Amino acid sequence: MHIDIISVVPGLLEGPFSHSILKRAEEKGLATVRVYNLRDFAIGKQKQVDDYAFGGGAGMVMMVEPIAKCIENLQSQRDYDEIIYMTPDGETFDQPMANSLSLQKNLLILCGHYKGVDERIRERYITKEISIGDFVLSGGELAAAVVADAVIRLIPGVLNDETSALTDSFQDHLLAPPVYTRPAEWQGMNVPEVLLSGHEAKINEWRFEASVRRTRERRPDLWAKSGLGESDLKKRKK
Ligand code: ADE
Q: Which CATH number do you get for residue 225?
């Protein structure tokens, strides 16, 4: 997979992609991420990328021309499966969206700033608009890093067995169960006995029940989506 990101603050994206799993994905040749500075496509001596909003009001708007120039330059080098705009009024990002994006080959992500981009950019180029939640960030960069992280870790080979994505929260509409490591007893707090038993079927059963309990308590909305009910729980027990 290849991800290109367009930003007016490219420095904000240096950290996330030079560490840990994302760095390893790049080193293994499984995913590459390139960040483009929108200012390199700015017009005129001032390198201007934003301007006042027509109709007045507070806040600047990102101009059409630099973004169009940047996107068209990148499109001449690559066919994008999606051209994504990070915006609080987009579709809310979730695990199913991460799963489907992880199947794509080439993604282009545009990070908004100020009051956002001129609407004509959205109409002409953008194929998908993503929000990472109902709050407003100062720019789309951190949101783009969140999306890229969630997507890249799903690419086969990026994670090793111990960090397999198959047991993540949300993959089956259930939250993940609690996890423990050594020591088995700490300050009078004990790890559940079954996890020390070595009995795989019982351990799986315990984890499933703990997932169900956690999901019902914390996320009744997810529990409803899981399609599981009392009869499934009883069936598993038999
Ligand atoms: N830009 C600003 N806020 C955002 C959000 N919540 N999601 C995606 N992009 C954003």
A: 1.10.1270.20
